[in-house]
Structures are given as C-alpha cells and as structure tokens.
C-alpha cells in the first residue's frame, strides 16, 4: 500500500512538473503590409520601417546620449535564411528607425516587441510602398470610421502592430 502511494505521488509530481515545463504556443500574427493611405512612389523597391522596442540602456559614447534607440532586428527570407541585420537607427536627432529598401516579396522580421520579447512577424513588401511595423508599444488600434478589425493586426490586448497585408 505504501509503495502504491509513493508511486502514485511520484507519477502525479512528474505530470505536474512536465505540464509546467511544456513550451507555450508561439504568437502567430497575420502578415503586415502597407497601410491604406500609403502613397505609391513609383520606385521598383518597397520600404520597410520597424518601430522595434527601445533599447534599455543609453549610448553615452554618441553625439546624442539622450536619444532613444530602437533595438536592432533581423530580416529573413521566406525560407528562413538571414537576409540582413538592421541597425535600427536613422542617425537623426529625432527618434526614428531605419528605412530599409527591399525587393517586392514576403519576408519575416525577428525583432524585440515591448511586452512580448522576441517575435517573428511576416511582412509583405510592395514596390513603391512602405510597410510599417509597430513593436514599440503604446499604440492602440486605429479603429476609426474607415478602419475595421479585418484590416489591422494587433497583439493580444489590442496593441496595434500594423496593417494587414492586402488591406491597401
């Protein structure tokens, strides 16, 4: 009887611990594309702008030590191969991320999102248009009269990430 109790207790403990150790499902978002009011430039490439989470520390060795810096991110091809690592700072006095020119197509970005850690977001680049991704936090969904939930992509909790590809 004592052996049965110990065996049952051990089995229950293993089940509880393995339940706690099991991986959580990843965050899956719809592809982000250019917004509906995005102006067409006529260029053969498209542009990508990623407002990634701000870096935690200051860069006192630069000429703008109190400037807020967006964290760097990676652009992956659709097959998962690294295309480019982006130093996400335009170099301007005002806080602005880097604009990256890319050939039209579908890519994935791996970046830090405020409150969500590292995330992988699918993006669609269209010639002459700008795809903008918001991961810095604090932007609520732009649900105005002309915007529906089917046109926007948000994190759980309503934080706006970008415009759903195809809503342009």
In short:
By secondary structure, this protein is mostly beta strands. Helices cover 12% and strands 31% of the residues. It is built from one helix and ten strands.
Could you describe the 3D structure shown?
- The chain is mainly beta.
- The protein has one domain (27-164).
- The protein contains one helix and ten strands.
- It has one helix at 2-21; strands spanning 32-33, 46-51, 73-76, 82-86, 99-102, 105-113, 117-125, 130-134, 152-154, 160-164.
- The strands form three sheets. The protein has a four-stranded antiparallel β-sheet, with no helix packed on it. A three-stranded antiparallel β-sheet has the order 1-10-9, with no helix packed on it. A three-stranded mixed β-sheet has the order 5-2-8, with no helix packed on it.
- A hairpin with a 5-residue loop joins strand 9 (152-154) and strand 10 (160-164).
- Residues 4-25 have low confidence and may be disordered.
SS elements, strand count: 10
Counting H and I runs of at least 4 residues, what is the number of helices? 1
Helix content: 10-25%
Gap between N and C termini, in Å?
A: 69 Å
Overall pLDDT score:
76
The ordered string of helix (H) and strand (E) elements is HEEEEEEEEEE
SSE topology sketch:
Blueprint: H1 2-21, E1 32-33, E2 46-51, E3 73-76, E4 82-86, E5 99-102, E6 105-113, E7 117-125, E8 130-134, E9 152-154, E10 160-164
Main features:
168 residues; single chain; mainly beta; 4-stranded antiparallel sheet; 3-stranded antiparallel sheet
């Amino acid at each position: 009887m004592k052996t049965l109790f110990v065996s049952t207790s051990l089995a229950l403990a293993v089940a509880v611990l393995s339940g706690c150790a099991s991986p959580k499902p990843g965050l899956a978002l719809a592809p982000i594309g250019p917004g509906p009011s995005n102006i067409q430039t006529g260029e053969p490439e498209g542009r990508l702008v990623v407002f990634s989470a701000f870096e935690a520390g200051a860069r006192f060795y630069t000429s703008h030590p109190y400037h807020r810096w967006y964290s760097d991110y990676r652009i992956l091809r659709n097959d998962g191969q690294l295309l480019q690592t982006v130093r996400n700072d335009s170099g301007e006095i005002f806080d602005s991320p880097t604009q990256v020119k890319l050939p039209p197509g579908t890519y994935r970005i791996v970046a830090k999102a405020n409150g969500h850690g590292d995330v992988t977001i699918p993006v669609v680049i269209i010639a002459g248009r700008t795809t903008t991704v918001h991961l810095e936090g604090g932007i609520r969904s732009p649900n105005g009269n002309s915007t529906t939930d089917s046109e926007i992509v948000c994190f759980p909790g309503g934080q706006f990430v970008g415009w759903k590809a195809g809503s342009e």
